[in-house]
Amino acid sequence: MRSLLCAAGAAGMVLCAAVGPAAADEPDGFKVRDARITESSGLAASRAHPGIYWTHNDSDDGPYVYAVEAASGRTVATVTLRGIGAPRDVEAISIGPDGYVYVGDIGDNRGGTWDHVWIYRFPEPKRLRDATVTAAQFTVKYADGPRDAEALMVHPKTGRAYIASKKQGGGGALYEGPQRLSTSGVNTFRKVAPIDLWVTDGAFSPDGTRLALRSYFGGRMYRWQDGRPKDIGSVGVPIQQQGESVTFAPDGRTLMYGSEGEGSEVEPVELTGSQLPESAKGGAGPGEGDSDAASGGSGNSGAEEGSSRNSEDAGMQPSFGKGALVLLGATALVMLLRKLVRRRE
User: Per the record's keyword annotation, is Signal included, yes or no (predicted)?
Assistant: First the structure.
């Protein structure tokens, strides 16, 4: 029996080794414990405070943004925005390279009938505590008319703002704002690419080489090249009560998905293969995201486009390898147990 237990233990160690390392690198999910946050509609990983995620409620809450600590799920700071009027339908949040937090009051539950929406901007606090800050307010219109939207993404290298419209059954689009937003006059966003997804949120990778967009039940990953998205395949999305938000973890290797609802969960999904941002592949440093893939050089675009056609297969390869190891280990365990049982008989 002792031999049997030793064999089982050894095989168990093989199984753990097969699946352990990837899980250890993945950030933990967390539960939002603040009873005030019942409609978390946007999510952004802090640049200044590791382990902190900024979020906000959907409509009917007020000018509030919350800093939630991932380790505990507690709100460690509530920021009240001053000087912006009454928010209408706040749907998204993003952090730019300038150290500012951008909040998208861009939703339109009336099906795209409001002739303008707003983006608010405030500096990310250096200290996490409750505070009231004066925010800049930018008026936004679309070149091709009003529409509903829930995704605001600020590129982490260029600082340019993008909005993805939300349209059931497809027909959505990505809109590009002016090079710099202005508080005077109107900021016109122009369509730059079609998006065949009912988008509820989106995020750029920290190095700016990937754009992730999510819907309630699916997601797509895009390579950011020449200032435009190049679709490289689907990404996993967890089953959630009402999946509304997504952001990259600070290292760029994991997507963090949020949901509406009281006590909602933020769930991690690890990226693999071509889904990974360039800096997360080990070939580029964090500061190189403004190179070919991020800002527009052609680089090795032919090879990249060829590999992108097989992106979903490439993304599955690491998982397939782990599964094969687990299956192999389980088979070896069964064979060993049978052999030992025969010897005892």
Answer: yes
pLDDT at 292: 40
Question: Read out DSSP for 128-145?
Answer: -S-EEEE-EEEEEEETT-
Same domain, 77 and 96: yes
Residue 11 CA to residue 328 CA, distance in Å, equals 10
Same domain (yes/no): 315, 305:
no
Same domain, 37 and 20: no
| Under 8 Å between Cβ of 71 and 85 | no
Token output for 23: 């899980």
What is the model's pLDDT at position 169? 65
The CA-based dihedral angle spanning residues 306, 309, 313, 314, taken in that order and rounded to the nearest 10 degrees: 40
Q: What is the CA radius of gyration of the chain?
A: 23
> Which residues of the chain fall below pLDDT 50?
1-24, 283-293, 295-345
Residue range 225-271, pLDDT digits in tens? 999 999 999 999 998 888 889 999 999 999 999 998 899 999 999 99
Residue 168: the pLDDT is 66
Q: Are residues 202 and 67 in the same domain?
A: yes
> Total structural domains in the chain?
2
Q: What is the DSSP letter of 198?
A: -
Which residue segment(s) compose the domain that 110 sits in?
32-309
Whether 157 and 291 share a structural domain: yes
Residue 107's nearest CA partner among 121, 122, 90 is 90
Predicted pLDDT of residue 68: 98
CATH code for the domain of 200: 2.120.10.30
